[in-house]
Amino acid sequence: MQLSTRHLLGIKDLTPGDISTILSTASQFKEVLQRPIKKVPSLRDVTIINLFFENSTRTRISFELAEKRLSADVINFTASSSSVAKGETLLDTVNNILSMKVDMVVMRHSASGAPHFLAQHIPAAIVNAGDGINEHPTQALLDAFSITEKTGKLKGTKVAIIGDIMHSRVAQSNIYLLKKMGAEVTVCGPPTLIPKYISRALNVEVSYDLKETLEWCDVANVLRIQLERQNQVLFSSLREYSLAYGINRRMLDNLQKDIVIMHPGPINRGVELDSDVADSKQSIILQQVENGVAVRMAVLFLLSGGRNPSDN
Length: 312
Fold this sequence. Notes:
This protein is of the alpha/beta class. It has 12 helices and 9 strands. The chain folds into 2 domains: about 10-135 and about 290-310, Rossmann fold; about 135-290, 3-Layer(aba) Sandwich (Rossmann fold), CATH 3.40.50.1370. It has helices at about 15-35, 60-70, 90-100, 115-120, 135-150, 170-180, 200, 210-215, 240-245, 250-255, 275-280, 285-305, and strands spanning about 45-50, 75-80, 105-110, 125-130, 160, 185-190, 205, 220, 260. The strands form 2 sheets. The chain has a 5-stranded parallel β-sheet with strand order 7-6-5-8-9, with helices on both faces. Strands 2-1-3-4 form a 4-stranded parallel β-sheet, with helices on both faces. Strand 5, helix 6 and strand 6 form a beta-alpha-beta unit. Helix 1 (about 15-35) packs across helix 5 and helix 1 (about 15-35) packs across helix 12.
């Protein structure tokens, strides 16, 4: 099993066949994770560095756990405690690390395109763990895996992506993946948080009406308001946002059907989701976290040119 690319820089670069291969491989690794002994020797003697220039808890821990479950040698790097804080360039940092014979680099960076820059200059395989407001491919893959697990399919599934679309790399990667796999996609949020070009450029529907969107969709993937990425005031207050676009239990009870609730985390409880929605039976947020390990195991395994996971 192999992918058509030697890096995972974004969903934009993957074929539908690549996506299907990653999801089917993740399914096999999820079975491995249910075993009493969850570790397999698939990446023994492979050295992976987690290169995080941006704060992260969930993604970094998920990658580290995936790497250790595959028996890789793992190095963790954070920019705040490194020579980057002293002014060292990105390329110098990575070349110094590569001189230690690193095989793969998992990278998160605040600059869009940083992983693509590295891929042009170093021989190691690069996995994009989030770059600026560009892409977050493994989040989209684990979201797709979770939707498939819950609904049985991606093709024809109606998925609403709700919230801060403009600043979300998760939204962009999800849109690329869902459209490639035949899902129907609507983005919903305040006009100030939805890019003007998105309908034409990414072939998605745009809605500013939350109630209408929830009545349409099978799955609601709700995004966090990313105040740290906003360099201007785009709505008057979090309370106003919550009143217009926050999802509460009463809204779901008034629908004529049950919809699936997703969130990439961390949740601003009481803003985009009330607790009785986030913790409800319709929510698959914790399943997303669990599936993230299996999906990232699949990505690392396939980029290393591994054999069938069931052979382990």
